Amino acid sequence: MSKKGDARIPVGILGATGVVGQRLVRLLEDHPWFRLATVTASDRSAGLPYAEAARWIQSGPIPEEAADLVVRPTEPMAGVPMVFSALDSSVAGPLEKGFAEAGILVVSNASNHRMGRQVPLLVPEVNPEHLDLVDGQEYPEGGGIITNPNCSTIGLSLVLGPLHAAFGVEAVQVVTMQALSGAGLPGHAALEMQDNVIPFIPGEEEKLEEETLKILGVRGEGGVTPAAFPVSAQCNRVPVSDGHTALVSLKFVEPVSPEEAAAHLASFQGLPQELGLPFAPRRPIHVLSDHRHPQPRLHRDLEEGMAVSVGRIRPCRINDLRMVILSHNTVRGAAGGALLCGELAVAEKKIPGVRPPVPTDDR
Amino acid sequence: MSKKGDARIPVGILGATGVVGQRLVRLLEDHPWFRLATVTASDRSAGLPYAEAARWIQSGPIPEEAADLVVRPTEPMAGVPMVFSALDSSVAGPLEKGFAEAGILVVSNASNHRMGRQVPLLVPEVNPEHLDLVDGQEYPEGGGIITNPNCSTIGLSLVLGPLHAAFGVEAVQVVTMQALSGAGLPGHAALEMQDNVIPFIPGEEEKLEEETLKILGVRGEGGVTPAAFPVSAQCNRVPVSDGHTALVSLKFVEPVSPEEAAAHLASFQGLPQELGLPFAPRRPIHVLSDHRHPQPRLHRDLEEGMAVSVGRIRPCRINDLRMVILSHNTVRGAAGGALLCGELAVAEKKIPGVRPPVPTDDR
Amino acid sequence: MSKKGDARIPVGILGATGVVGQRLVRLLEDHPWFRLATVTASDRSAGLPYAEAARWIQSGPIPEEAADLVVRPTEPMAGVPMVFSALDSSVAGPLEKGFAEAGILVVSNASNHRMGRQVPLLVPEVNPEHLDLVDGQEYPEGGGIITNPNCSTIGLSLVLGPLHAAFGVEAVQVVTMQALSGAGLPGHAALEMQDNVIPFIPGEEEKLEEETLKILGVRGEGGVTPAAFPVSAQCNRVPVSDGHTALVSLKFVEPVSPEEAAAHLASFQGLPQELGLPFAPRRPIHVLSDHRHPQPRLHRDLEEGMAVSVGRIRPCRINDLRMVILSHNTVRGAAGGALLCGELAVAEKKIPGVRPPVPTDDR
Amino acid sequence: MSKKGDARIPVGILGATGVVGQRLVRLLEDHPWFRLATVTASDRSAGLPYAEAARWIQSGPIPEEAADLVVRPTEPMAGVPMVFSALDSSVAGPLEKGFAEAGILVVSNASNHRMGRQVPLLVPEVNPEHLDLVDGQEYPEGGGIITNPNCSTIGLSLVLGPLHAAFGVEAVQVVTMQALSGAGLPGHAALEMQDNVIPFIPGEEEKLEEETLKILGVRGEGGVTPAAFPVSAQCNRVPVSDGHTALVSLKFVEPVSPEEAAAHLASFQGLPQELGLPFAPRRPIHVLSDHRHPQPRLHRDLEEGMAVSVGRIRPCRINDLRMVILSHNTVRGAAGGALLCGELAVAEKKIPGVRPPVPTDDR
Predict the structure, then answer these.
(1) Which is the most buried residue in C98, C125, D251, D320, by most CB within 10 A?
(2) Can you give the pLDDT at residue B222?
(3) One-character DSSP codes across C246-261
(4) Which of D194, D199, D297 minimises the CB distance to C324?
(5) First-to-last CA distance in chain A?
(6) Does the distance separating the beta carbons of B187 and C180 come in below 8 Å?
(7) Which residues on chain B are in Cβ contact (under 8 Å) with A311?
(8) Which pLDDT score is estimated for D359?
């Protein structure tokens, strides 16, 4: 599909051999706006063809465009105005900064810069106006960092966003059952997870509790004022390949019935839908009526994994509503979410001289 | 191991071929007080040797005592003062009543009679005094019905019991991750559960929300006054063979720190421990300090599956405490729990003329 | 996608609510030649909309074309020249015969008629010439029965076919690790399969041992003379959702090296490829070089699940070669395989007056 | 259970923190002959209490005897006449030799020395006479190395042994489905194994093909003459925690019916049974008649995991017999098998001055 005369925007993937990096490679195949021009990884892999460097665990073969790319060390390169970072948080901080300083826009999945004062933490349907924070970053023209939230946070925030706007969230109790791919590779040992669940994921509860409030916060002078309600989280790992499930109980300022909430969520549309961004799902939130739904294996791939599904909306005996939220953690919750952020940045002209190569309603 | 001159109390199992029935068969092997004298099942199985009638799915072979017992239809029999019922709730109601009317004490795992006004719903460490309700039942001498709570409820109540007594529970948010054996046989299709979790178990949330309040309630004239706090539950099925995990957030009348709660739970002892009942765990509640614990595969078998384990006791951003509770759903949560109820009934002389054959501190 | 003026051939699915039936519904969505016109199921479901009758377990939503179809009882209907049968073998025999007698061409996944003297048992790349057997069937014009082999047999035969033609197979040792979906719904209980494998599948070994020989046999007067070599099979169920793996050891008449065999398989093309049938994979057999491949989760979906993958081709210490074969049991091994048989039948003009609505090289 | 005045033989475990090392710790709890006196691990762990050094993944708590032992570096120590080695084969070779040179008898699970000319490769029921090879080793008095075969090989050899003795094995086709614990920790990534099987285990097929022949070989001057029949193996990893399944097809010199083979296996007794060694199963081989058996979850724990179970003994269309063999890979196939070898060495007086502390028929 890659052609000579390709008018698409050349992009890079930082940390392209891990779980999220592989997913980015896969999703960029035939992307209408972006062309995968370069991949980076640790020094150990640098110099190898991508097909050799990656221990490919995606279903389906490595896209031909990517297979022969020679893996480069993770250093700024010319000719690539935007990179998607799937770097591990143990190294992402300074590396991503280096790219921004070199005048490249970094769309990052890593947690390092998420809570930075001038760093947008984006769920494009929920807080697209936060993108403008990037204008206040002190990087050379074209350079900057925008971030994709934690994989559990994205699904939760995408549902809380419209509810908060309409009814005012006052408290959020959330328990998650998270998929194995969320831990990356190697992640958990198979023997540990066999016939088992693990009721702890390091750092995850704090991310869910804090990132959610920044996303639902209000952009002002010099940063975001976070939303003021408490979020209490318990995160668990379960033996599922992909798909994070969140069990939530919500308290609102305005009384709201299950039916109202369901109708509001089902009809929700955001800026990405308006702009017709390539990776925008037609309906960001699918409300399911069967009591047994949503389920990871049945619903994680709705709208190519970019839609979130919600079920069992019902009264709670303590708060106002209970519901179940499912999202594809490596698509919507990571690689696909980052692509959508990148598309938004391009559509909103955050990269000087870079414009969508095709009309945005053409998906 | 069954010997001539066996002084043990002959008991029966109603519905002996299902998951809980099989577990009862296994646990009764070499029980110091009880001797398995008879097993019943549906008419389809009646007349067959138990080894043929049961599609045995327990690890290890069928106990020899049980293998050759001829399965009987589920009708009252002579010479058996007590039966353990693992009948399906679709048929248990009238069948169990028939046994009580025939002067037999029924210890039931079925849900049918649990909420009956004069029916004890017992977690022997928590509400042993409720056992006396049985005295008010209008069955012939020796006859009566006592019940074992739902498998999720038992683990939760065993932990809430001492906390409520000490600090006064005001609200309970609970999300469960429940094992496959809780659904009995055939239960879920393997294909449904493969690489999946299911966020719904029919009737389970209601049981958790209501039974807990009866167990923690106060016995008075003509029944139990249920505890008055709200319980909100979300129950999920996960691909684990045995072991229910409960993720809870608790609000108390009295402020309590994680350390206080942990110390209180770890030192808790109930009447079964005092009486030295054969199936009483030495410590009913094991408090674990590793953040990654409790886990079904590692901790479900603590004290032969009769102890509950609790971990991650910590502050909650909304209520007072969060914690994780694990219990073996077919041992403590069903078969073993029922045996303990039966032992308590014998120790408390609820069956005329029937006494423990050996001293109670001899386990 | 269904349009007025649709020139596609109307087809039906018999037994549309089961695992294979659901897969047929999914694969027929947007099929270039066939339009799903009717679905049948047991009387219990008849009269309901398909979306209600089917307990949908496919990933992704029910295709809109199918959701609103009213389920009919499994009886011949007018206006549908061809049906795909996913009926259970307990009822398929006479029901399928009824359709053939009504002048309808039945493409069946059921085992009942497979070994019939005049019944083609087809793997379209391997024995397309067997299709002509249908001409000898004594049904009214347009009526007939053609069959798709057992799900394990298809993958094995597709690989044995070209090897047998080139080198002459003399003996086949085969052990399978078969997916849960092969057992249909409900199939195995989740509790049985948890942390387990089961070394027995009723009737499966016989099918593998016998159907393979018919497929590789020679069509002659009055039927097929089966191939003459022995096949010895051991079939196992493993906890995998989709994808049957076969571990084979092969003895040949002509000595053949692993490299020769690999090259021969990798370049193999059959009549469906020549004809450009819509469901024909470009390369029916993918030869993989990584020792760890093929694996169900990574390779079952190659070419939309229609290609078979082969790995670890190496010398055997007893026979000539060992290798590992993987195929998607509900796509290539059932629903997709049946569609390919149906496409072949249409391309070969086995249905009077019915022709492909579009050129065959248009996929 | 450890008491002052304990007359048991002090033993050590080398590499005590891994999967097999942990299992050894667990099995040595309350061993009637051996007392766990010391544990070693890599330098990283040395100096820590065992309870801290081991990432304990066994069901049940760490035995108290072991929890407080301080982990030592893997160097010879005084006062311990015998050690069980669970060292990784990347380091085991010279380390084990060092212990032998220090006059300590090493019973090893590692593969390094297994094929050494003077090194016994023992399945105590099958080739106990090979133990005498150790007398020819050139280590100081008391020092020596005896080895436990590969985990898959043990189960296979224990069944082939009596069959070969009675009927003469001529060829062995074997396919395995091996448990996760066989890969140690961390072993496979959970994400790799989820909804998957992997048809390759590095080095495993060679071990199965070669070790089996040494075990069934004849001890002579200067070593063992291996058995002369071919073994062809295909090894697979499946998502099961413990329990290796082997699917075998066997050719014999003497014709043998399934019934004869079954009767012969079921009644088989070896020297460990005669001697009443503590870890000797009463019946080494359990022959099961249900077609669906053996299964890992149901049968791996037969006789505490020390017995092998065999099912589906039936004619093969190519060779003489097919059957299914199941063994617990970390008990019989590793830790328990090594203990039995150690017991045999003590009973056979291979350690000067060391004798069983209790009569051997006392289990």
Answers:
(1) C125
(2) 82
(3) EEEEEEESS---HHHH
(4) D199
(5) 16
(6) no
(7) 199
(8) 60
Exposed (0-12), middle (13-18) or buried (19+): which is D314, by Cβ within 10 Å?
A: middle
**Could you report the per-residue pLDDT of C258-283, keeping only the tens digit for each?**
999 999 999 999 999 999 999 999 99
CA C137 – CA C131 distance, rounded (Å): 11
Q: Could you give the angle at the alpha carbon of A30 between the alpha carbons of A24 and A34, nearest 5°? A: 65
- Smallest CA-to-CA distance from D163 within D245, D220, D227 is with D227
Token duo for residue C334? 């059932």
Statement: residue A2 has pLDDT above 60 = no
Structure tokens at A246: 């969140």
- What distance in Å separates the CA atoms of residue C209 and residue C246, rounded to the nearest whole number? 13
Residue in C closest to D229 by C-alpha: C318
Q: Is the pLDDT of residue D119 over 60?
A: yes
What pTM value is reported for the model? 0.96
D61/B300 CB distance under 8 A: no
Domain B9-149+335-347 matching CATH 3.40.50.720: the answer reads yes
Residue spans per domain, chain C:
9-149+335-347, 151-329
User: Which among D104, D42, D106, D28 is positioned nearest to D74, based on CA atoms?
Assistant: D42
User: Residue A2: helix, strand or coil by DSSP?
Assistant: coil
Tell me the CATH number of domain D9-150+335-347, given options 3.30.565.10, 3.40.50.720, 2.10.109.10, 3.10.28.10.
Answer: 3.40.50.720
Distances (CA, A) of C321 to B38, C155, C250: 57, 17, 5
Report how far residue D150's alpha carbon sits from residue D109's, in angstroms, rounded to the nearest whole number: 7
Summary mean pLDDT of chain B? 95
pLDDT in tens, D250-309: 999 999 999 999 999 999 999 999 999 999 999 999 999 999 999 999 999 999 999 999
Among B168, D195, A354, CA closest to C238: D195
Backbone angles phi, psi at D70, to 5 degrees: -85, 125
Q: Tell me if C134 sits within 8 A of C352, measured CB to CB.
A: no
* Predicted confidence band of residue D5 (pLDDT cuts 50, 70, 90): low
Beta-carbon contacts of D48 under 8 Å, excluding residues fewer than 6 positions away, are D70, D71
Cis peptide upstream of residue D294 (ω within 30 degrees of 0): yes
HEC profile for B24-52? HHHHHCCCCCEEEEEEEECCCCCCCEHHH
Closest residue in A to D240 (Cα–Cα): A194
Query: Which CATH superfamily does the domain covering C151-329 fall into?
Result: Dihydrodipicolinate Reductase; domain 2 (3.30.360.10)
B touches which chains (3+ CB pairs under 8 A)? Answer: A, C, D
- In angstroms, the CA D272 to CA D282 distance is 9
- Say how far apart CA B57 and CA B51 lie, in whole Å: 11
Residues of A in contact with C58 (CB under 8 A): 298
* Contact of B104 with B80, CB cutoff 8 Å: yes
Among A171, A198, A294, whose Cβ lies nearest the Cβ of B318? A171
Minimum Cα–Cα distance from A19: chain D residue? D191
